[in-house]
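Hey, I was hoping to borrow your eyes for a little while. A protein chain has come my way and I'm curious about its shape. Take your time with it, there's no hurry, and the full record follows here:
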Amino acid sequence: MRARAAVLLALLLALAGCGGGPAEGAPGPAPTVRFASYDFAENQILVEVYAEAARRRGLPVSVQHGIGTREVVSPALQQGVVDVVVDYLGTALAFARPEFARPPVAPEEMHAVLVRTMGGRGVDVLAPSTAEDQNGFVVTRSFAAEHGVRTLSDLAPLAPELAFGGPPECPARPFCLLGLERVYDLRFGAVLSMPTRGATLEALLSGQVDVGMLETTDARLAVAPVTLLEDDRALQPRENVVPMVGAEAAERWGEPLRRALEEASARLTTEQVIELNRAVELDGRTPAEAAASWWDAQ
């Protein structure tokens, strides 16, 4: 908690220096709608898509990338340190309501619960997109062929001899390593923390790890010699992309901000998320460039 508070304080000071608000008695820059992303590439791309929607409606926008995990970003949104976060429905609900023994599974029911939960914390949850992205778990094609592996269940007898690679927060996440242990009884012999999804793929292809976590919309899945394992026991929830706005910002910027964000959600599809990822992961474009080109194509 102390570390989180220190990060939030540093974030608040940084945002104040980037247009979050002038010092007392100073004119300062004009206020902006402050978008914030999580610390992985796809979320940075999606935040740029939504931020560009706001720009094209004439709203002043600033973007802070890679702020951290939900333990940092969610309190920042609730406390008004940032204004807009782009999240994923199932994971956002599990983080907000971890005590749910049997959470809803239909997206509309999940959304309704998330709206009520976050509304009580000063956050408006807008309409979700049909686009979604889940945690995926991959092995190399050669590994899959050698061991006859097609599903996550197939890994159970092999797991004690395997090394797993995923993001640093994976061991504590209900839809990552915790879920693999609880739902599939997968207990890997070694767990390695990977700084990026690209590093996970490199570790997998080099043999440093045997199983890696990549999002199901990762464009590299289509070109790398890997097999995405079937989630045959339905560990992963529906993960529709959903924008969330701090209530103060929602009131301040009003209907133009809401319309911009919900227009982005209405236009976005899972296939387009993959193409946006491809533009950044494979073609070398920045998230902002990919988002602007996507909007031009709309």
Notes: Confidence is low (pLDDT under 50) at residues 1-6, 15-30. The CA atoms of residues 32 and 196 lie 30 Å apart.
